[in-house]
């Protein structure tokens, strides 16, 4: 981490990640054949209605097509570069497979230029390799975890996160997720060994509003500062109490203060062995 001297109000308390120490080159351009243009949604759906609030504007960025399916099995790959990706919190690695094809993959902590990675059922459980959960020893850290075999990595993909293999139970593997939740995943699903890179990401202090706006983050308005028609906490004369017992979202659903918001009919409920522990443990990933 790099902390700036308070030469101005905007510099005070601001911090950045020292990319020169983590990336192979901070000035290299992405591999052109693995990029495409992508428009920012601004938090709006296909009908133009805002579904995710406080998003908009921000710097334009080229989208890097990252491989989350890892369908090149049994073919070793050499890491050519470790690169920054503006579209995700973790770093990405450009790998060259032995058959000559290049792909972007999510880079784990400790992966360096020149390392060899392999996706195979008989691969060694070393950092960067990918294999079925049934072949991963208990206690190992994994990321890029599949929910359904063959669908591609969907869980544990943000910077610094990892899941821990707790036990092997018949056709299922028990994983302790970054939220401290313990859940069952089919042992035939695949996962990568290690933890996602850029673990300092959560420690960055933007320092000023301008850096947030450059990321496409717009200012957030308190519900109590709105009109009654705009939020359940709004309205009243002056600074008024919210008028009902529990905190609510803009849509009127309960939120915060340890209240359970998970749907009782969610498809994955039967696979949860232990619910997450709210509070300090969850805030630091249970570690």
Distinctive features:
about 290 residues; globular; 17 strands; 2 helices; four-stranded antiparallel sheet; about 20% strand; OB fold (Dihydrolipoamide Acetyltransferase, E2P); disordered C terminus; seven-stranded antiparallel sheet; mainly beta
List the helices and strands and how they pair.
Blueprint: E1 2-3, E2 15-16, E3 35-36, E4 63-64, E5 77-83, E6 92-97, E7 102-106, E8 116-117, E9 130-132, E10 141-143, E11 145-146, E12 153-155, E13 163-169, E14 172-176, E15 182-186, E16 190-193, H1 209-214, E17 272-274, H2 280-283
Antiparallel strand pairs: 1-2, 3-4, 5-6, 5-8, 6-7, 9-16, 10-13, 10-16, 11-12, 13-14, 14-15, 15-17
The helicity comes to under 10%
Mean pLDDT: 90
Distance between the termini: 21 Å
CATH homologous superfamily label = Nucleic acid-binding proteins
Rg over alpha carbons: 22 Å
Share of β-strand residues? 15-25%
Architecture (CATH level 2) name: Beta Barrel
* Whole-number total of structural domains: 1
At the third CATH level, what is the topology name? OB fold (Dihydrolipoamide Acetyltransferase, E2P)
Write the element-wise H/E pattern from the N-terminal end onward. EEEEEEEEEEEEEEEEHEH
Give the CATH class. Mainly Beta
> How many extended strands?
17
Number of helices: 2
Largest sheet, in brief, is:
7 strands, antiparallel
Low-confidence regions:
281-287
**In one word, what is the shape?**
globular
Structural class: mainly beta
